[in-house]
Amino acid sequence: MGKRSQFERRKNDAYHTPASVGRSNRGSGKGITFINEVILTDAKECIEWPYYRMDNGYGQVGLHDGMHLAHRVVCEKAHGVPSFPDAQAAHRCGNNSCVNPNHVRWATQAENEEDKRAHGTWEMRMGGAKLSVEIVLDIRSDAAGGASYEALSSRYNTPASTIKKVVRRHTWKHV
């Protein structure tokens, strides 16, 4: 029978049994209506998700079986079910809130990470990161000049364990 899309599985979904019709509005609201309109576009520019966004910028949409990432729903509706396991809906534009079907594609994690590096959003994946590329370079330079982890920890208001990982390239390997 093959792998079916989450949108094609609704027939046996608890929300779609004859007894439950009309009990749930999830999946029939503004978000899914917006997505159904967006997948028909041939726009070149980003289309921002106008509804709920998580702290990292990704939009969420409620479907009958729960909350889903809006760009992933758009990717599946526009491009079909991914043809390989663990596929990620990657943004070509680097804009986490973009739901333009021309800007999202199925990619491996490695391809998605490379896209992030190419458009400069890779560092943002650690939403709580206090360091930047400039600070990391300064830390490494200061450490090479003989500064101790504890001194750097105080200077950059960062735990000494984090400083050590940066200097030894256990983190921030791409810099």
From TrEMBL:
InterPro entries assigned to the protein according to its UniProt record, in alphabetical order: His-Me_finger_sf (IPR044925), HNH_nuc (IPR003615), Homing_endonuclease_His-Me (IPR044930)
Residue span(s) of domain HNH nuclease: 69-113
Segments of this protein annotated with the region Disordered: 1-27
Molecular functions per Gene Ontology: endonuclease activity
Pfam families referenced in this protein's UniProt entry, alphabetically: HNH_3 (PF13392)
Composition bias, Basic and acidic residues: 1-14
This protein's name: HNH nuclease domain-containing protein
